[in-house]
Amino acid sequence: MIKKILKGTGIAVAVTIALGGSFAAHEWYADKPFMMRSLLDREMMKIAFDSPETLTSLGFLESVGITNHNAELDDDRPQQLEKMFVTANRIQTLLNNYDNNDLNESDKLSKEISLYLLDFVNSSYEYRHHNYPVNQLFGLQNGFPSFMQAQHQVNSIEDAENYISRLNKLPVKFSQNIEGLKIREDKGILPPKFVVERVLEEMQNFVDKPIKENILYASLEEKLEKISDIEDQEKQRVLKQTHQAIKQSIHPAYNQLITYFEQLEPKTGNDHGFWNLPNGDKAYKKALQFFTTTDYSAEHIHRLGLTEVDRIQGQILSELTKLNINADNFTQAIEVLADNEKYYYPDTDEGRQQILADYQTILDEINANLDDAFNIRPKAGMEVVRIPEFKEKTSPGAYYQGPSLDGSRPGRFFANLYDIKATPTYSMRTLAYHEGVPGHHFQIAIAQELEGLPFIRKMGGFTAYSEGWALYAEQLAWELGFQKKPEDNIGRLQAELFRAVRLVVDTGIHHKRWTREQAIKYMKANTGMTQSDVVSEIERYIVMPGQATSYKIGMMKILELREKAKSQLGDKFDLAEFHDVVLKNGPVPLSILERLVDGWIKDKNMEQSI
Fold this sequence. Notes:
Layout: H1 2-9, H2 11-19, H3 25-29, H4 36-49, H5 52-58, H6 78-95, H7 105-123, H8 140-150, H9 157-168, H10 170-186, H11 193-208, H12 215-225, H13 232-264, H14 280-292, H15 298-321, H16 330-338, H17 349-367, E1 382-386, E2 398-401, E3 411-415, H18 425-435, H19 440-449, H20 455-459, H21 463-479, H22 486-510, H23 516-527, H24 531-543, H25 550-569, H26 575-583, H27 590-609
Parallel strand pairs: 1-3
Antiparallel strand pairs: 2-3
């Protein structure tokens, strides 16, 4: 009876899929399920089922015919934020009911990782409003169209009608988000003026575009064209309803948010760091702890960045001499390379298509030649696509989106093709290795495919680990011989330099009170990046304090641990086994990663002595 009731809501089916059919009713309702993993998975499932958009992204209900969640949007009322902290406290209490003496090693690690996250969430309550939910980089105004275009699958008329349902429910979602923005406004947590200006420009361009050119219309039209068993009359009916929904629901929702930001703009200023906000210094310290999973101070990170910038620039200058490029300083030398037209594609649609094709070739090549370095490989495929044009002007150079759990959607490497000068050929290999193979795609897809681990171990977010791995992957590819040309190695070193400069500018903005212009000037002078990329990056750090420091901190820790293992194991060191240790436990804080590697070193030494 209970199972029948649960099946009506989709819960039993989803749990069966997620947990291999072993999830009894007792495990769903008990304060202390028999297995701790059941508790963790149950709580993650409850959180997922409270978010229709998350269910769409995960994509595991559709395989058993459950699609009603695809007609709904998340509840974004401010009360939901408060509910999250209540939930975290409750899970923390339940988790502490399990005695470590009763757990195996895997469960002990699951408990430790979960408590690490929960402790951080609960200790961050005071700073829960220290963010800018709507900004030029991410937010409802560009996140919703991207979500509908990339993640809402349309394989039937029912799917299309769910798509339209979501369009018509957007005004409520926008109103809920405005409530949250007003709470921040009352607390004096206002974005800098340039953020408001960028968002207003983006939203105005969105509503000014003819409806049939709007991504929400064009995307659905494209998806419908790929379905052969739907009559044209039905497709036209759906598109007519979509046109009406955009006119009557989407545009009014955006205009409501535009009106709010127009009245907010006069209240904003040009102090760009978190130090300018109430308790901003403490909030930034908390952000650094979260993103680096360390207790490094802002001052320490700043000094570390300056040291790394000097070291990497010296290596780049040495490589440039191999190309007969000499100059009085780093900036001049790197600009000589960047000004050479032979390193750029034509600024045309054909040129951009060729970039995507060449990225795929690079990834296919390395993917076919990694057997000596990896014992474990992801089953999920990966494709290279362009960042949607409506948002690429303010988007980063690239990003990765993981595959769906049911395998219906591959991992995706999104490339920004807005400024053709931002994609010199000598930078492409490094970017492909970072976002794809053996970078984010390997780490994220492998984690999703790990068996016997709770969801939180597969899907957990530790930026220093995940971004540290992707940056490490860039160097690994070079070490394995995939960047033989001096230009390609310069591209790799520039990418690492870029992350070192991030340590300097992120702490400069939020700790040392640099202006936006100071940070732009420093990054431009010390990276050789295009002006458009530099501006986009600095504006990213302003709205995402601390996140940019995680890459280099994580990479340096992984390299440090690899060198420790090589030193202590000597001939017994095996690179593929080292990568197993890093990847087969899912995302972890850096302190736990170090302990795992130390344990592996100890076990290897014991094997030799037996």
